[in-house]
Amino acid sequence: MKILEKHIVGADYQERHVEAFAFANVKIIPSKKGIIKAIRRGQILINDQKVNPKDKLVEGDTLVVASILPSQKKVLANQKLEILFEDDDLIIINKPAGIPVRGNRALTIENIIAQQIDLSQNNAYGRIKAVHRLDIRTSGILLMAKSHRAHQSLAKQFENRTIQKEYLCIVIGKTSAKGLVQTTIENKQAITEFTTVDSYQSVKFKTLSLLKVVPKTGRTNQIRIHLSQLGSPILGDEKFGNKKMQLQGKGLFLHASAIGFRHPVHQNWIHIRLQPPKKFKSYPENQRRFFESIRRKK
User: Fold this and answer.
1) What is the CATH number that goes with domain 164-297?
2) How far apart are CA 163 and CA 121, in angstroms?
3) Strand, helix or coil at 281?
């Protein structure tokens, strides 16, 4: 069992509930709901024993947060992530769609990579942590830090908007050659640039467009919201698109395709590019061929 956090119960939490102490002290699980789930599945232990959220504590009790349960290792053992770049400070992986970056479950990117990569004994960070977000349904490049120093440096680059990110997506409808969307999302400025790479005629959708998208800000769901507001929702986006125009079993057509940044230690510029999943080519091409076959029959 790998220990992620350890806390000793003080006199101020004598006879208080486990969930209250955990919520006040555990850093890697930010929500109370997540804390309760972690206690119930045995990821949060008191004196190395599984407890209930409402169990009462005694001064001197030891709370630990374990990385994963032994029974969960079987789930992670069959998962291998494609590594695009790795050194002593950071790792860049190809995140598959359908797996969350982190969360209150065994199968997360951070848990998989923790089993796949052995950290140096000299690494005080203790775990590999994602520096930015990718939605569970989004595939592509994910930047992760192996050290606290690297995480701080990369997070600062994101804050200063010096990291360059690029996405590919397929949207419903015909789009202009280039465009800029500027709105506010949750009362914060949000800016997205896009360029149309290709378009495909479709019987079902009339037109599908392949876009290269560059977010200039990093608001939650920014690209999905902006393209929906533009009238061209991302194919497969049931939340921000028209549900009647979506697909079954194809997922979201949004892919993090490129990233550029300064290395957190030696400051060299690093640029990584990643091709999208095969569906980005096969699905629109199939739509185009079907459209052509219908037109020839008329």
Assistant:
1) 3.30.2350.10
2) 29
3) helix
Distance CA 274, CA 168 (A): 10
**Cβ count within 10 A of residue 244:** 5
Question: Buried b vs exposed e over 95-110: b needs ≥16 C-beta within 10 Å?
Answer: bebebbbebbebebbb
Rounded CA separation 177/174 (Å):
9
Are domains 3-66 and 72-159 of this chain identical in fold?
Answer: no
Put simply, whether the predicted model's pTM sits higher than 0.85 gets the answer no
Active site residues: 135
Terminal CA-to-CA distance of the chain, rounded, Å?
66
SS3 labels along 178-227: EEEEEEEECCEEEEEEEEEEEEEEECCCEEEEEEEEEECCCCCCHHHHHH
Say how far apart CA 141 and CA 25 lie, in whole Å.
32
Q: What is the DSSP letter of 107?
A: -
CATH number of the structural domain 72-159: 3.30.2350.10
Mind listing the pLDDT tens digit for each residue in 60-110?
999 999 876 555 555 555 678 999 999 989 999 999 998 999 876 778 898
Q: What is the assigned CATH class of domain 3-66?
A: alpha beta
Structure-token pair, residue 95: 């995140």
The encoded tokens of residue 266 equal 């030696």
Phi, psi (rounded to 5 degrees) for 53: -55, -30
